[in-house]
């Protein structure tokens, strides 16, 4: 997943949205720390569905709490394996 700064995202939003539409999520960072990820609407809807219709932000907060502080994220290999499983 490509990572861009907030400033770069602001200056290149149209280009980044095209990448996301083609299936490539884009991470956005501020001062080297991740703050957001742009994902396609279909991916977002799948995440909402996986949450069982619950409010996505509440589901995400719950998931983060369960993941704990030692969670380092999902590797690109894991993500690729999961997306191929669908």
Layout of strands and helices, then pairs:
Elements: E1 2-5, H1 6-11, H2 13-21, E2 26-30, E3 33-38, H3 41-50, H4 56-67, H5 76-85
Parallel strand pairs: 1-2
Antiparallel strand pairs: 2-3
Report on this structure.
This protein is of the alpha+beta class and 86 residues long. Helices cover 55% and strands 17% of the residues. The protein has helices at residues 6-11, 13-21, 41-50, 56-67, 76-85, and strands at 2-5, 26-30, 33-38. The protein has a 3-stranded mixed sheet. The mean pLDDT is 82.
Describe this structure in a few short sentences:
Helices cover 55% and strands 17% of the residues.
- Number of helices, where a helix is a run of at least 4 consecutive DSSP H or I residues: 5
| Biggest β-sheet description | 3 strands, mixed
End-to-end distance? 19 Å
Q: What structural class do the secondary elements suggest?
A: alpha+beta
In N-to-C order, the SSE pattern is EHHEEHHH
- Broad shape: globular
List keywords for this structure.
3 strands; single chain; three-stranded mixed β-sheet; alpha+beta; 86 residues; 55% helix
